[in-house]
């Protein structure tokens, strides 16, 4: 039980950090989204992880060499796909807001990222635990769908008058097109973002080798993130770098009064790292199905925290009462799902 509580506590902290990750994009003043995104991921995936492993996992290089080369390369490939999920999520958050974007992305992310690790260990999972965990995942997906519906109701209520104004002044324009485009980016991001958990799951051999070389199990959980991060940053570099070259927005890094946005970009990297490492530690504490139960708990808590940040940033200002009721129902459903998953995880570890 102590491990269970420690695991969920770490995952909850990771979810808070992950939810705060999108805030710098919404509060920037000088940078374009691609400037903030590239800077944040440079710190999140390269600078901070390398500093962390040098301090807490000095055996990371021999552990990486001892692990299966195929698994390491596969983790990098999943990381590369996840990186493109990160790029498209930046477009989605910019277009439709933090709350709704997270609802769509996390719903797809949860389904793909949690079920595949469970299928890899299917024969080792007790029958009653399978039923409970799959039910918990189903309830969780329903909760995310309800939260997404709340976001749609919010969007309709807040944007109704402006849509009428656009149609009146320019009958040829459709105010809903940017929203649909942003929603499409979020759908793509949801599928690709799940690859982060898949890469971490496939790279677990790095952590095992680090433990064999004398590292503690918690510090060893840093190891699997390295190949995932390297692949992810390559995708982010290609996506945001090409955008900055095309738009000329790379000059924003040298623009007057850009220091504030630079600070927010570094903070984004710290938020992202704070979402990764505690999640890996929490998954370790949850045991055999840590990357299944833990991922669902992580995505659920991230969604709830993202909605909290969305409220603070005024994204729900002027929203109709029906959207608030729907959001409360969705968040309550997610809480129920987490209780079900905790019980299912207990059945696995009994």
Description:
With 350 residues, the protein is mostly helical. The chain has one domain (2-349). The chain has helices at residues 2-20, 23-27, 33-56, 60-66, 69-96, 98-120, 127-169, 177-193, 195-202, 204-212, 217-220, 225-247, 259-286, 290-312, 321-349.
Keywords summarizing the entry:
350 residues, mainly alpha, 15 helices, 0% strand
- Mind describing the biggest β-sheet? none
Number of domains: 1
Q: Which percent band covers the strand fraction?
A: under 5%
Proportion of helical residues = over 70%
Shape: globular
- CA gyration radius, whole angstroms: 20 Å
Helical region count?
15
What class, by secondary structure content?
mainly alpha
- The pLDDT mean sits at 80
Outline the low-pLDDT stretches. 161-175
Topology order in helix (H) and strand (E) letters:
HHHHHHHHHHHHHHH
Query: What is the terminal separation in angstroms?
Result: 10 Å
The count of DSSP E runs of length 2 or more, i.e. the number of strands, is 0
Fold blueprint:
Elements: H1 2-20, H2 23-27, H3 33-56, H4 60-66, H5 69-96, H6 98-120, H7 127-169, H8 177-193, H9 195-202, H10 204-212, H11 217-220, H12 225-247, H13 259-286, H14 290-312, H15 321-349
Helix pairs in contact: 1-13, 1-14, 3-12, 3-13, 4-10, 5-6, 5-8, 5-9, 5-12, 6-7, 6-8, 6-9, 6-14, 7-14, 7-15, 13-14, 14-15
